[in-house]
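Hello again,

I reread your note about wanting to compare the complex against the isolated chains. To keep things tidy I'm splitting this into two emails, and this first one only covers the full assembly. Below are the input lines as submitted, including protein chains and any nucleic acid or small-molecule components. They are followed by the predicted structure of everything together. The single-chain runs will come separately.
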Amino acid sequence: MDAVARPPLSRWTVPMPPAGWAALGAFLAGALLLVPALHLLTPAGSALHVSDYAVTLGGKVMCYAIVAVALDLVWGYGGILSLGHGLFFALGGYGFGMYLMRAIGREGVYQSDLPDFMVFLDWKALPWYWRGTEHAAWALALAVLVPGLVALVFGFFAFRSRIKGVYFSIITQALTLAAMLLFFRNETGFGGNNGFTDFKRVLGHPIAAPATRVALFMLTAAALAGTLLLCRWLVASRYGRVLTAIRDGESRARFLGYQPHHYKLFAWTLSAVLCGVAGALYVPQVGIINPSEMSPANSIEIAIWVAVGGRGTLVGAVVGAALVNLAKSWFTVAFPEFWNVFLGLLFIGVTLFLPDGLVGLFRRLAARKARA
Amino acid sequence: MRPLTAALFLLLLAPAAARAALDPQAVAKLGAEDSEEKLAGVDELARSADPAAARVLQALAEDNLQVANGRVLLLDGERTLDATTLAEVDPAPEGAEPITINNRIRRHVGTALAALRLSDPDRRARLAAAQELADGASLELAPALKAALDREQDREVKPLLALAYAQATLQSPEPAARLSAVKALRDSGNPRVERLLGGLLADGAETDPDVRREALASLEAVRHRLAMGELVGRVFSGLSLGSILLLAALGLAITYGLMGVINMAHGELLMIGAYATYAMQGVFARHFPRHHDWYVVAAVPVAFLAAGLVGAVLERTVIRFLYGRPLETLLATWGASLVLSQAARSTFGAQNVSVANPSWMSGGVPLVANAVLPWNRIVIVAFSLAVLGLVWLAMNRTRFGLFLRAVTQNRAMAGCVGVPTGRLDTLAFAAGAGIAGLGGVALSQIANVGPDMGQAYIVDSFMVVVLGGVGQLAGAVWAALGLGVLSKFLEGWSGAVIAKIAVLAFIIVFIQKRPQGLFALKGRFAED
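Full-complex prediction:
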């Protein structure tokens, strides 16, 4: 493992410094007060107006940031590189998407009680696993429980068999690929390759209304802040220290009497649950979920967000997810053909020159300044 | 033969045919009021094996026959011919009535024409006619079929004729004739025979107990042969899929197994090999059109060198700095794969390009009626075995292989005794990449060549390496062939997508039981 090569960044996993609290406060103030005010209260032409597009993009990026923090928890602190986190994200999205599909009611193309794609397939009744999804609370529970359960079962067997490192990464990739193929099938009952879309309302509110959009945005911001605080607290706790110890020397930790697979399994399952939450928040804002979210490429991209920001720093994951995704939305408009090249060079450049990501670079520079 | 080409062919024959004369009575029957009479006329003409008869029947099928006072006339564009002699009748007689035929006669005319075409000197025409007749020949054609069967030499036409003949004689009222037909069908391996015999055994179709017993025995023989054919076909397509996986995985077995580098750009190296084949195809088309069939052979070294060169550059610029950090090589090489596939997209376009099989690789070896081993897949299996042999030789019988194994076992010690470890890493990585390029050549012959093709194989080839066990060539071989055959068998009963899911699930479960793969290195060692 690479930990031999350089001291782990988690030396900084002390209680959050005042600057951290200040940054978190500023973020929450901006997301919960400033953006809603500028979006709802200013006229559309004004220079201060935050457009629909910007709010949706911001909400989307924050969902990605939650996923990135969740991956950082298992990769940065547990040393487990998952190439299948897109699966948990998509499962969360499908879970809540089931409620959104049911909430369309009879306003679909076929004006049936069943979702359009089921009418199209000539199904007469909802499959059993759709039961109860007309209640948002149950759908939300599914969005969290299903990824958690998948991760729990998968992780239980994988960690018990002491699968680690590259092997683990590759079988998580196999897992998400298999799930993607399964969800592409119409018979699976999740809309085949079109997935879920054309949502009309959420909890009784029209889904495209500015107020709904802002409410979802604020909810996502709160979820991101909560995720950060939770993970921060975890990694600074005794549990987090053992997890980090396992990352750096699993056999030694085992010989000292710890059960590495319990520690890993907890972090792994929690990480999947957080991804499910992010997926559930993502679907109503973006308005679509389909199996391509589970493609192996998407999951690897999550890893690069974390790597760009800096592994084992949590805040780095947020920075990386934000920067890469903002760059992506700019690139895919300005130079669509160069996005892949840029992303590829970013992968190479970051692993070669910025092993600790942007946060690591910043900290090195700050340390040098302090010495001088 | 399609009706239009048949008509053209018959027009060419027309001058010769004009001299021959058909049986006047048979022709006259075509003009009769009664359908049975017409049918008899058609059958008599069909038995004559005369090209002129074909012309008359063709005209009947196209509603170009007329009857005037019992004389049958053939309309040929502006002209009117006498149907018996095919001599022109000028002026055309008054009061000619067109001969109308019902669908039953029309079907009959169709088979009769096919029977006539069985004496065609062109093999393809006979094959087409035999195929048409194998779908259903009437009893009246049995003598014509028997004659054609005795004359026929072609290996592909003959079994079809035998089938058609048996089918025709099955309609005979004589149980003895039916019995011999059923017995003759026993040696067939044609899926149609299975349907035919099945229909015969249906309730009330065949009453004679002897024929029924023989039919049952024949049906079992045919079913057995068909099942064998299907089995052979499936094993073979599994083997050829496995040998593609093997070529992809051999490269990985070197780069990942021996050097510990997770090369996610491996699929793109495969793609480079495939595009090199495409480029060679273009070069040969332009400069050596007469030797075009050999472009694949020329593509082998070109693909090896092209992919090997890219591999060497990749190792020198990126991977060199990441040894011992497998998870980071994974990310960096994923980045490289994005750049490479975009480069291919910019150079060759986003669409798939077409790579044609050379003529010596098209076609196949018919094993039984329902299993044909395609030549391109046979060549690929042989090619991958050859590459496997060369890799084994290189690893075990050359200085390079010795050094490589030494570095794998103990890098520091190998360096101390003078092995140039740095240069060796580059060479080994280039060799692994070159083998992937060879895989690309093979792949280009059976699959689409496009900028995204690499992604489709990378997960599969990693599965092979993981399943086989790291650092083990033998493991890679067994895992590749096993995965190939397993997925083809699963595809047989559950469809491609479910088969793929099942294979992935199988691997996930398998790794739980044998985390070190099929062929784990034995010995005492502890990680960390």
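For quick reference: The radius of gyration of chain A is 21 Å.

B.
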